[in-house]
Specification:
This protein has seven helices and eleven strands. The protein is an alpha+beta fold and 286 residues long. The strands form two sheets. It has an eight-stranded mixed β-sheet. A three-stranded antiparallel β-sheet has the order 9-10-11.
Length: 286
């Protein structure tokens, strides 16, 4: 599978990866618990062990989108690194409370189905124990997410608009007077320039935007609002809250009964067009 194939179905692929991660972790936890029970000769039913571990893992898996949404609002990066790190630490409390509440509810359902009653134990003491475990899990998930983003940026290349008077070392075709028309791409230790006019369309990607240049995607640390303003007079138009297109690269528009549409680009890409932007796009194209 190529990087483009992976990212074409990134949501599905990452969901499968997280599911696999928790399946492996839960299986290991169950094996360890069973070994500990056998060591102390405690007869604890297998169904209870399975329910306890699977309920916890299932809720944690369901809460990953909540963590990612919070991180999009408070990314741990300059210039607000310390403030946002503190915000994440505070957020672990309600995040853990959701985990514990849902986990206990699932366990009570299973115990009730077997004609028994599940007892969580003293609330303060048990929640404190679960919270300490959840902080470790939250930190591990966040670390994996940031490592994944770092690797993807290295493989895809990270772009930035070239400041006035700068060009990468060793570039023989250096014309610094055209610097605002270009952006600098760093990929696997190499630097090269790409013209802004070569961008086909732009897609929101968390704390970044993805610049689609032909078949090559490059990540740029910009907000959609910022890059829309920056490129407003360069033939680009916002067509969706998560998409901007270059007008002369739009081949045709496919309308839907809902009022939304789809822009078919000359590159073959298909870009969503929301109904709030559809009329404006038609006028710009006309």
């Amino acid at each position: 599978m190529t990087l483009d194939d992976w990212q074409r179905h990134e949501t599905r692929n990452t969901a499968l990866l997280w599911t696999g991660f928790f399946v492996v972790q839960t299986t290991a936890n169950i094996a360890i618990i069973r070994a500990d029970l056998a060591r102390i000769a405690l007869d604890y039913p297998l169904w209870a062990v399975l329910t306890a571990e699977i309920s916890s893992a299932a809720v944690l898996l369901a809460l990953i989108p909540v963590l990612l949404a919070f991180d999009r609002r408070f990314p741990i990066q300059p210039p607000n690194l310390l403030q946002h790190a503190a915000a994440h630490l505070l957020f672990t409390v309600p995040w853990s409370a959701l985990h514990v509440a849902a986990m206990v509810a699932l366990r009570k359902l299973v115990w009730a189905a077997r004609g028994q009653t599940y007892e969580f134990g003293p609330l303060l003491g048990e929640f404190g124990y679960e919270y300490l475990k959840d902080v470790r899990t939250y930190s591990a998930i966040l670390a994996i997410v940031y490592l994944y983003r770092f690797v993807i940026r290295r493989l895809r290349g990270e772009a930035k608009f070239v400041p006035e008077g700068h060009a990468p070392d060793g570039d023989p075709d250096n014309d610094t007077t055209r610097a605002p028309d270009r952006f600098l791409v760093k990929m696997l230790g190499k630097e090269f320039l790409v013209r802004v006019d070569d961008i086909d369309w732009i897609e929101a990607a968390g704390n970044y935007v993805t610049l689609h240049v032909g078949s090559k995607p490059y990540m740029l640390r910009e907000t959609m609002a910022s890059i829309e303003t920056r490129l407003a007079d360069r033939g680009f138009a916002r067509v969706h809250r998560s998409a901007i297109v270059r007008l002369d690269r739009v081949d045709h528009i496919e309308p839907f009964d809902t009022g939304d549409a789809r822009a078919h680009m000359t590159s073959g890409a298909q870009v969503p067009v929301s109904r709030s932007y559809r009329q404006q796009l038609k006028e710009r194209l006309a």
